[in-house]
Design a protein that fits this description.
Blueprint lengths: L11 E6 L6 E6 L4 H13 L7 E4 L8 H9 L3 E4 L9 H17 L7 H12 L7
Parallel strand pairs: 3-4
Antiparallel strand pairs: 1-2
Helix pairs in contact: 3-4
């Protein structure tokens, strides 16, 4: 999601949702490029759980590129891409995006420069802290 007003050098939010448990992993980032996606998948998905069998994304260039395709091919991960102008295909991520946007609207200061810290604090304090097995 983004770009948002710069907050501690962060302008985007990347997230991943486990469709079975509905568990969300999200991170504020500086960019929304292929390297950011790969680093997020490795650090926030694979290292904490394991490589998923499939990833669903929209058609953004940070998801649909040679670097991400090579990573997914290496680990035999199916990449499903949502239909253009039909965000319901990636419904769980869209629900999480809406929740994060709501958190941002209700917690950040007027100048919106603190969103990257505020949403993480709010998100961490209001979510159940159990990870999927």
């Amino acid at each position: 999601m983004g770009p948002f007003p710069s907050s501690f050098a962060k302008t985007y939010i990347i997230l991943g949702v486990d469709y079975v448990s509905k568990w969300v992993e999200a991170k504020a980032t500086r960019t929304d490029d292929a390297r950011t996606v790969i680093d997020f998948v490795k650090a926030n998905i694979v290292s904490m759980y394991k490589m998923p069998r499939a990833i669903i994304s929209y058609r953004g260039t940070h998801f649909c590129n040679k670097m991400v395709s090579a990573l997914l091919k290496k680990y035999n991960v199916t990449h499903r891409v949502s239909t253009a102008y039909h965000p319901q295909t990636n419904g769980q991520a869209e629900v999480s995006n809406s929740e994060i946007k709501s958190i941002l609207e209700n917690t950040v200061n007027h100048d919106r420069k603190d969103w990257s810290n505020r949403w993480m604090m709010h998100y961490g304090r209001t979510t159940q802290h159990t990870k999927p097995q």
